[in-house]
Amino acid sequence: MKRVHFLSAFAYLAVALAFSFASASDPGPLQDICVAIDDIKEGVFVNGKFCRDPKLAKAEDFFTSGLNIPGTPNALGVNVTTVNVDRIRGLNTLGISAVRIDYVPYGQNPPHTHPRATEILFVLEGTLYVGFVTSNQLNNTLIAKVLKKGDVFVFPIGLIHFQFNIGKTNAVALAALSSQNPGVITIADSTFGADPPINPDFLAKAFQLDPAVVKALQAKL
Asked: pLDDT band for position 9 (50/70/90)?
C-alpha cells in the first residue's frame, strides 16, 4: 500500500516537473536529448555538459531508483536525496531536477537558496512549517505556512527559504526544481563557514553581534 502511495506521489511530481520545464531557468535545449558524459573526446559541449551521440541513448540514461528509501539525517535532522543530472544523465539540458527530503521530528532544512531554480514542494508524510523571505525591495517579508500531508508550496527562485518538521513523527517531502543543477547556498554555512573565514569584525557589525559570538560560530561551522 505504501508503494502505491509513493508511486502516486511521484506521478504528481512528474506533473510538477513538466510545469517546471515550461518555465525553466536553464537555457532551452537545442536537440531532443543530450545524455551527459564526462569524457570530452566522446561528445560535444552543450548547456553545461558534454553530450553522447543521441543515437546511442538507452533507457538507463533516463532512469534512477531508490527514491523510496529514507536517507540518513544529518546533525540538523534532515537528509536531502538529490536527483539531478549527475544521477540521471539524460536530464542534461532539460532544465529540471528533483529531491526527496526526510526529516526526523523537529528536524529542519535550514535557511538556504537555490540560485538557479524555483522549487515546488509536495508533502508526502508529516507536518512541516515552511516559508520564504522576500527581497529588500519587498521589505524582507516572511511568507510562511504549516503544511500537512498532500499540501504543496512554492519557493520562488533565488529567495531564502526553509522547512521545519514541527510534528512528533518523521516527515517526507518531494520537490521539483526548475534547473538540472539548481545549486544550494545554506546561509549559515556560507556566511560563518567560509574558507578562508570572513573577517569576524565585519560579520559582527553586519549581524550586530559580539565578535566573540561570530568567532564561536565560525569555529563551529
From this structure: low
Q: What is the full DSSP assignment across the chain?
A: -HHHHHHHHHHHHHHHHHHHHHT-SSPPPSSS---EES-GGGSEEETTEEE--GGG--GGGG----TTSPPPP-TTSEEEEEESTTTSGGGTTS--EEEEEEE-TT-EEEEEE-TT--EEEEEEES-EEEEEE--GGGTT-EEEEEE-TT-EEEE-TT-EEEEEE-SSS-EEEEEEESSSS---EEHHHHHHS-SSPPPHHHHHHHHT--HHHHHHHHHH-
pLDDT for 11: 53
The neighbouring-strand residues paired with 73 are none
Cα separation, 168 vs 44, in Å, equals 51
Does position 10 have pLDDT exceeding 70, yes or no? no
Position 21 pLDDT exceeds 50 = no
Q: How far is Cα of residue 112 from the mean position of the Cα atoms in its chain?
A: 9
* pLDDT value at 189 more than 50: yes
Question: Which amino acid, 135?
Answer: S
What's the Cα-to-Cα distance from 10 to each of 1, 52, 102, 136, 201, rounded to whole Å? 14, 28, 15, 36, 48
> pLDDT at residue 120 above 70?
yes
Span 169-179, mean pLDDT?
97
